[in-house]
Amino acid sequence: MDIKPLRYFMAIANTESFTKAAQQLGVAQPAVSMAIKKLEADLGLTLIHRADRNVGLTDEGKKLLLHAEKIIQATDDALLEMRELKGLSQGEVRVGIPSMLGSYYFPPILMAFRHRYPTIMLKVIEGGTWQLQKMLENGELDLSVIVAETLPDSLQTQALIREEMLVTIATDHPFSTLDRVTPETFFEEELVMFKEGYFHRRIVDKLAKACKKTPKIGFETNLIPLIKSITQQGFGISTLLAMVIEDDDELITRSFDPPIWLDLGIAWRKDSYLSKANRAFLEFVSEHGRG
């Protein structure tokens, strides 16, 4: 069976559009339409609803999609492994990194890795840990940094870093007189938070639910310099990792009471072939990272 129609079918399922699928695949739309018609004819089934501009999968199409994802992943893994056996692959690493670690923890590691392996292409995708985890599970990433406690059975992880999540305040904030800050006290203040999907936000939301508090979120942004600036000027308080706070930030930090520690790991799919390039990256991060 030619798997090209399955790739076209998956693209349509993901984009819900023949036009967008063709653009994503870099082919003409008629070619996509003809491939899907032939696939339906070969199977004797209708896979896609075509109603005006709305495109959706039939029940049969939804079942095929589950198999198509596995077939294409297995095919791609096999082709990659064969290329490596022939020595034809220079290697590529697609890694997802949360913005805070991407800005403050990973840059020297990435530069050092690139220096040691100049022929390996690094594709770094920034996003929230939840979004990156889903991309990893869907095969859009090879590796991703995730919060270890959220690890599903389909993923395997390697410990990366353990960092304390700190209450971050302006130097003249009343919390500066405290040694630690309880969650109840924290949630009495106006907050400067990451958007939903980022690990800090998920943990803050979980903390609020545990102590039955509603967070007073005054600002939502994924821009760390903006979070710092708003906090410096006293318009709210936030939570950041210690690695993010620099000497000239005019910010101070306090531990939660009790302290909140984040165990971050780098994960990959258990059922996929991990290329030589990805194995090299894992080993390098383990060698140069700090726990």
TrEMBL record:
Keyword Transcription in record: yes
HTH lysR-type domain boundaries: 1-58
Alphabetized InterPro entries for the sequence: HTH-type_LysR_regulators (IPR050950), LysR_HTH_N (IPR000847), LysR_subst-bd (IPR005119), WH-like_DNA-bd_sf (IPR036388), WH_DNA-bd_sf (IPR036390)
Domain of life of the source: Bacteria
Membership in a protein family: Belongs to the LysR transcriptional regulatory family.
PANTHER family: HTH-TYPE TRANSCRIPTIONAL REGULATOR YBHD (PTHR30419), LYSR FAMILY TRANSCRIPTIONAL REGULATOR (PTHR30419:SF30)
UniProt-recorded name of the protein: LysR family transcriptional regulator
